[in-house]
Structure formats: C-alpha cells, structure tokens
Amino acid sequence: MTQIDLYSILPISVLVAFACLLLLLEVFYPKGKQKEIGFFAAFGFALTMGLAISQLGNTISGFGGMVALDGFSNFLNVLFLLTGILSVAFAYGYNKRMGIDRGEYYVLIMFSVAGMMLMGQATDLIITFLALELLSIPLYILAAFSIQKEESEEAGIKYFLLGSYATGFIVFGIALIFGATTSTAFAAIIASIAQGTANLTLLTIGAALLLIGFGFKVAMVPFHMWTPDVYQGSPTSVTAFMAAGAKAAGFAALLRVFSSLFPSLAADLAPVIAVLAALTMIIGNITAVAQTDMKRMLGYSSIAQAGYILMAFVPFADEAVRATAISAGLFYLVAYTLASFGSWGVLMMLEREEGKGLSLADYAGLGKKYPLLAFAMAVFMLSLTGLPPTLGLVGKFYLFRAVMEGNVLWLAIVGVLTSLVSAFYYLRVIVTMYFKEGAPVIIQDRLAYWAIGSCVVATVALSLVPAPLFAWVSNALISPF
Amino acid sequence: MIPVNYYLILSGVLFSAGAVGVLIRRNSLVIFMSIELMLNAANLAFVAFAKMHSANPAVVHNGQIFVFFVMTVAAAEVAVGLALIVAIFRKKQSIDVDQLNQLKG
Hints:
The structure holds two protein chains of two kinds.
Chain A: H1 3-8, H2 10-28, H3 36-54, E1 60-62, E2 67-69, H4 71-97, H5 104-121, H6 125-143, H7 150-181, H8 186-195, H9 200-218, H10 226-233, H11 236-261, H12 266-289, H13 294-311, H14 319-350, H15 366-369, H16 371-385, H17 391-405, H18 409-435, H19 446-464, H20 467-475
Chain B: H1 4-24, H2 28-52, H3 57-92
Helix pairs in contact in B: 1-2, 2-3
C-alpha cells in the first residue's frame, strides 16, 4: 500500500475513522445528551468535505486499479458530503422532537455516506459491491429507526427485503460478468471485451442483471414498488437522506459501470434504458397526481425525477454525446438534491409528534402565516417542475439537449409532456399554500431554517449564474483506463 | 470428474429458485432464505468460473476472494435482517408479509 493508494481514498478513510470514533464516544455519553454527537458528526463531514475539495483536479488510480479518483468521483464526493451535512442539520432538531435522538443515527449516516463515496470511486466490481452494501445496510437500520412505530418497522423490513433482493441480482450479474471476462477489474474487463475473448451472451445477461439491481436502488419503474411505502414509513429525516443520497449513489454506480464497461452492448441496452426512463417518468408523475399525503407524493415525485436523470444514460455509448450527457445528468442531480432536500426539510417543519401535519390540507394558509417558509416550498416545487427562476429549469434544459443530441427525440418529448403532468401536483401545493384558508402549525427549528434557507439560495442563485457549476460538471469526467 | 458446466447449471437453477421464491412466498423468513439462496448461487458460479480457468492463478484468486466478500456481507445482512424480523414478530406475533399493510395509498 503506497501513499498514492491511501491518498485516493483519504476522505473515505477519514470519514470512516470519524464514524468509528463517534460510535465509541456515544457509549460513554450520558443518555439524553446524545444529540451533541450531531455536532461532532457535522464537524467530521465538514473536515472530510475540506479534504475532498482539496483533492479536486486529481486523476489517480489506487490499489492496483480498484479505486479511481477522477473528476467524476471527486464531484460526487463533494455532493454526497453535502447530503450528509444537510441531513445532520435537519435531523438535529427533528430526531429530538420525534424521540429518536440517539447517537447511532449520525454514525449510520456517516457510514452510509462513506459507502456512497466509495461507490463513485469504485473501478472494480468487488468494490462496487462492497460500497453498495456499506451504503445500504446502514440505510436498512435507519429506515426502521423509529422502532416504536409500526410504520417505521414496516418500512425497514420492506426496504431490507427488496434491497437485499436487488443485491442478489447484482452479485449474480457480477458473477456472470466475471465468468464472461475472467476478471472483476474494469480495466481487465474492458481489455477482454476489446480483444474479443469475452463471452458476449454471459456478458449481456450480466449487464441486464446489474441494470435490474441498480434499478431497484434508484427506484426505476418497474422496480419502484417499495419506494412510496419506505419513504412514507421511515422517519422524515431518513427519507430525505434516502431520496437524495442513496439515489444519487445508485446513479453514480450506474454511470460509472455502464459507460466504462458496456459501450459495446449499447445496441441492446440503450433502447431498454430509454423505454425504462420513459416509463419511470410517466408512471411516477401520473401516480403522484393522486396522492394527498405529502410524503407519498414526494416519494412518487422522486421516482419521476429518477426517470429524468435516467435520460442522461441513454446516449451512454455515443462517444460524441457521452460527456455532455453525463455532465447534464450530474447537473440535474445537484438541482434535484437541493430541491428535494429542501422540500423534505419543509415537511419536517410541519410534521408533529403524532405523525400529523403530513397531508396536503395541512399546508393551507401557510403563505399568509409563514411567508418565508411558504416561499421556500414554492421555490422547491418550481425547481422540481422545472420552471424559472430555479436550478431545475436549467437542469432539465441541459438534460433534454443532451438527449436530443443523442438522437432520442421521442424521449425528450416524453420528458416535456410528463413535466407538464408533474406541474399539476407540484403547483397544487403552491395553490394550497397561498390561496386556501387554514391555520398551519410549524415547529421553530433554527438549524432547519438555515438548512432550508441555504437550499433556496443555492437553487435560485445557481440558476441565475449556472456557469461555475456547469464548468465543474463538464470537468467531472469518468477517467478512461 | 463432474464437468464444470454442471455447477454453472446448478447455480442458475438455484438463483432462479431464489428469485421466484422471493416473489411467491409470504413468510419473511422464507423470503430471506430465498435471498440467501440467490447469493449462494452467485458464490457457486464464482467458484465454478474460477475452476474453469484454473490454469490462471489470478482468475482463481479473483473468483474465490469474491466469494469471501459475499459471505461476509451476507452475514452482516443477516444480523440486520433477523433483528428486524424479530422486532416485527414481537409486535405483531406474525412475520407474514401480507400483514405488513400499514402503508398504502
């Protein structure tokens, strides 16, 4: 193990070391004071974020080609750490209100974020698999974190069973790819395909199994059935983390694996992915229209959003368009993370201990009574719809452009039409907030206010000046081998 | 000497049995066992492929080491999964997934 090896996973190692330390600290902390662990966790995330930012611009490969540090993984590391910080900020007050302020919460979030970061960096299928499990197993526990509630338990077991089912597909897919190419290292797999020694039948089946497995993780139709239930049953602080972080990590793995390993299978895979993306957008958006529970509505909305991000995959084998498409996907991922985290944050402000305050009717009158919070929610809803002046509009614009450059015009049309459908249920929230009478109750939580505020500012400011972010995602390339 | 292909066929059959088992069984424990069956089918495939290329030690190591990783991760999953199932059983006196119906809409 050389210095280069260690440097390539430095942020991950620091984060994991920090998490282990907190796990020890938590034992010696008196009960009822454990939320102070949250401070340490936020510090750990900030420290790691500093390290990740200091690594920008590096392109190195470590551990004999098992992990890579390149623009792509560097960008995602920063994004995942941001997710971690935001979820600590939201959970700090929320978990106390819900009576689940236990120190393990932050530790599990840290382990899960470490898994996500490793997922973006993995260039060996062994590492992809380990990272996936490092990310998922803490999430199974987190989903059931509010164990005294039946819904949370149910969410936990559903997520666990379907998540492990997906893992089964992924492991068997990796086994077939190993059989087809005699290796699990990306470089060796690519070489084997290029030399024509690979067994293409096995390879295609393996790739399809991987697509199914990752499809479960990112909630792609028809593997999305668990999403609304799990999102509704889990504590909202966990749901926010799952909706933003876990989904982004799934996409990171899909992008990395498919665009590195399977360009040669594009003729078979690209049409399938295009159809799945279209189905995801259509079914996600149409089902969301019928929801009155806000958590469920946002759950279906997150399925639909996965469909939009999935569009960035369709031209994954087209050399000329691939870079544009991947950067458009990453750009939209940022827009989605900010807007979805922010709107889950608003939900947490209105949710009360008994699990009330979660239906659409509870938002009536919010505009009159709490104009700032209502404004924030309105910005997030506009961003998720893709209307100005928000980052969602810019993101969708780049996405549709990438898809059109990839010559899949029909998919772009489906994207635009389903965005129109989605406007119905997103704008319904705004209408309810501003034009209906009601007496909403919110919880005063300064930290959450700050977190929501920074999401609003970022969503609006980055849409007015998208150039820096766009320059960054354009450099976030997957390094070739 | 049994040809390596037979192991691969067995592994495919085990995987399919597991995948179907998850879909048609209603008891959480049995579903969980089916998932383990899928993972072990993959392990069998790894070892069989490694054996197929036994002339090349790198391939053998790669395949067999993956099996150890899968076994370790499966053990971690069991720890979490069984804890969840026990917690549910304590509350409901049943681990039938059809009774997990609080969440719908």
